[in-house]
Amino acid sequence: MAAMDQAQGMAGRDETAKGDKTPRTERGRRTLRKLLDAAAVEFGERGFHDASISGITRRAGTALGSFYTYFDSKEEIFQALVRYMSEQLRDHVTPIVQAAPDEIEAERIGLASFLGFVREHKEIYRIIDEAEFVDYASYRRHYETTVERIRQRLEAGAVRGEIRSDVGEIHAWAIGGMNVFLGMRYGLWDADADIEAVAAIANDLLANGLKRRD
Amino acid sequence: MAAMDQAQGMAGRDETAKGDKTPRTERGRRTLRKLLDAAAVEFGERGFHDASISGITRRAGTALGSFYTYFDSKEEIFQALVRYMSEQLRDHVTPIVQAAPDEIEAERIGLASFLGFVREHKEIYRIIDEAEFVDYASYRRHYETTVERIRQRLEAGAVRGEIRSDVGEIHAWAIGGMNVFLGMRYGLWDADADIEAVAAIANDLLANGLKRRD
User: Fold this and answer.
1) Sign, CA torsion A62/A65/A68/A73
2) Can you name the CATH fold of A2-208?
3) Model confidence at A13, in pLDDT bands (50, 70, 90)?
4) With contact defined as beta carbons under 8 Å apart, do B115 and B198 qualify?
């Protein structure tokens, strides 16, 4: 469960306190998710500095006390939110990618589903990008874990003989950057772009490169 | 001249005032550049909120009055700085790219020179990325103009028959994203990475794609 994972994985709190703040009931997990979903809207709309804990609990429809059951500060819920969004994205894309018949197709479907996710969660760019200034470790971890998943897919595809055998980390960072920029341009900025067409064109670049095919 | 271009192109100041603040002498242009170079260090080290005008003039070795000869506020020099850095990057990469024998090679050399630029100007990521929060129009313009230059190179390369004839804006955004992420990973985060090797591998992906070449 993403919400639990991130609460457990939280840095800057000692092990005991961390254990104390992990929700133990389904109701508690629901409240935690409500707070994180509300935090996504609050930080997404207002930015870190203007966002407030009372704004988050108001949006979540919870008492202020509920916030402090799970988080000590605005910094802490922001850090948890970056991980939560990163995991939501992973959970959205992973099953779709895993159902693909081969690695080239997995990257096409992965990009299309990412572009769809951005359309539905436009706040993801602002939140992840603001982490660069609020909590650099979270920012870096988001990209490192996302790119590592791409690298593992590439490697598995190479082992299965679907793509070149020399793929590695550099290719994974290139693909990650490609996806993030296409998401910004065609998911975030352009609500009318044909997401499937963008993914198909980018995937053809990825599969075949720019060289003339004569 | 980049510094003049950006002073002239500044938004939020009426035409007359703008004209008044453009340096008319070589000495004035030198002072303006000193202020912008100092602003890059100040904003790069401290971030927008903690940076101060007095910090900028101290680093530039100029009087506070000099600052107000060219800028009205911290917001205004930040906006000018984003454009200045964007133009410095363009001026660094463009002649190198134009000397390339063909478009595929142009993209390889362009990426290698970008990675080198990042190593020398590590503050560029923090400054451009902070523009997303301080001045979104500048942030977006930086990427749009950078990607538009890539698109024009691709189109010219296609006309010369060096690459596929169906290249366009989507390919340009994909390449822009690839370069920015490779710059972050191997230019900014990893001071020891072999920049030429990274550029060669990414360029081979761009030229030939991921499909097995049997």
Assistant:
1) positive
2) Tetracycline Repressor; domain 2 (1.10.357)
3) very low
4) yes
Q: Does B136 touch chain A (CB under 8 A)?
A: no
Nearest CA to B178 out of A170, A119, A195 is that of A170
B14, pLDDT greater than 60 = no
C-alpha–C-alpha distance, residues B210 and B205, integer Å:
6
* Cβ-based neighbours of B178, under 8 Å, separated by 6 or more: A173, A174, A175, A177, A178, A181, B111, B202, B206
| SS3 assignment, position A129 | helix
pLDDT band at B22; cut points 50, 70, 90: confident
Question: CA B118, CA B193: separation in Å to the nearest integer?
Answer: 12
- Shortest CA gap B17–chain A (Å): 32
Residues 6+ apart with CB under 8 A from A109: A96, A97, A99, A100, A199
Token pair 């097995």: residue = B212
Q: In angstroms, rounded to a whole number, what is the distance separating the alpha carbons of residues A1 and B203?
A: 39
B 103-132 → A contacts, CB under 8 A:
103-104, 107, 126, 129-130, 132
Please give the backbone phi and psi of residue B124, each rounded to the nearest 5 degrees, phi first.
-60, -40
pLDDT digits (tens, 9 = 90+) for B134-165: 999 999 999 999 999 999 999 999 999 999 99
A204 CB-near residues (< 8 Å, 6+ apart): none
Residue identified by tokens 């802490």 is A76
Which pair of tokens denotes residue B74? Answer: 């911290």
Secondary structure E strands in chain B = none
Instruction: Please enumerate in sequence order all residues whose Cβ is within 8 A of that of A94, keeping only pairs 6 or more positions apart, or say none.
Output: A149
Contact status, residue A198 vs residue A178, Cβ threshold 8 Å: no
Distance from CA of B47 to the nearest CA of A (A): 8
Nearest Cα to Cα of residue B129 among B211, B38, B44: B44
